[in-house]
Amino acid sequence: MTKEIYLCVASTNPVKVSAAKNAFLAVFPDLVIQCEGMEALSGVANQPMTESETRLGAENRVRYCSNLDSENRFDYFVSMEGGVDKFEEGAATFAYVSILTKNMSLTTGRSANLPLPSKVFKRLENNEELGHVMDDIFNTSNIRQKGGAIGLLTNNVATRESIYTQALVLALAPILHAEHYL
């Protein structure tokens, strides 16, 4: 009998659901990954503007989903929260990812920074969301559910999904080797 892992992704965005499934498939290649998206409240602004707000949003989303799992269906709860901040090198976008296990062990990780043009960051400071700004500048539609700003600014060498997948794989290290993270 093949072992299955049941994932709850704290979003119904197909990019995020696919990234979570791909990360777990890469780390657990001999298991069947069952993946379900769920709308989840972040408790932060729609466009987080700091690292700490972005991290809190990711952690809040997995806890939200866990609290709704009254039937204990899921082995893991996974979230990805994109945010922006201004660093010494300039404005950048990035994501925090959180993984909450069935036994309530929380692991949080972070993606690399993608530098943002200053004109984009200025619009974000005026309460616009990154996806909408990028759609406007690049004349795209709903880029959030496609390659994202990352895809647009890297000519699709990297995408929103690929960055989320990588960050999740790295965040799984303490779960894979818990004995070394005591």
UniProtKB/TrEMBL annotation:
<dbReference type="InterPro" id="IPR029001">
    <property type="entry name" value="ITPase-like_fam"/>
</dbReference>
<keyword id="KW-0464">Manganese</keyword>
<comment type="similarity">
    <text>Belongs to the YjjX NTPase family.</text>
</comment>
<protein>
    <recommendedName>
        <fullName>Inosine/xanthosine triphosphatase</fullName>
        <ecNumber>3.6.1.73</ecNumber>
    </recommendedName>
</protein>
<dbReference type="InterPro" id="IPR050299">
    <property type="entry name" value="YjjX_NTPase"/>
</dbReference>
<feature type="binding site">
    <location>
        <begin position="11"/>
        <end position="16"/>
    </location>
    <ligand>
        <name>substrate</name>
    </ligand>
</feature>
<dbReference type="InterPro" id="IPR002786">
    <property type="entry name" value="Non_canon_purine_NTPase"/>
</dbReference>
<keyword id="KW-0547">Nucleotide-binding</keyword>
<dbReference type="InterPro" id="IPR026533">
    <property type="entry name" value="NTPase/PRRC1"/>
</dbReference>
<dbReference type="GO" id="GO:0016787">
    <property type="term" value="F:hydrolase activity"/>
</dbReference>
<keyword id="KW-0378">Hydrolase</keyword>
<keyword id="KW-0546">Nucleotide metabolism</keyword>
<feature type="domain" description="Non-canonical purine NTP phosphatase/PRRC1">
    <location>
        <begin position="10"/>
        <end position="175"/>
    </location>
</feature>
<dbReference type="Pfam" id="PF01931">
    <property type="entry name" value="NTPase_I-T"/>
</dbReference>
<comment type="function">
    <text>Phosphatase that hydrolyzes non-canonical purine nucleotides such as XTP and ITP to their respective diphosphate derivatives. Probably excludes non-canonical purines from DNA/RNA precursor pool, thus preventing their incorporation into DNA/RNA and avoiding chromosomal lesions.</text>
</comment>
<keyword id="KW-0460">Magnesium</keyword>
<keyword id="KW-0479">Metal-binding</keyword>
<comment type="subunit">
    <text>Homodimer.</text>
</comment>
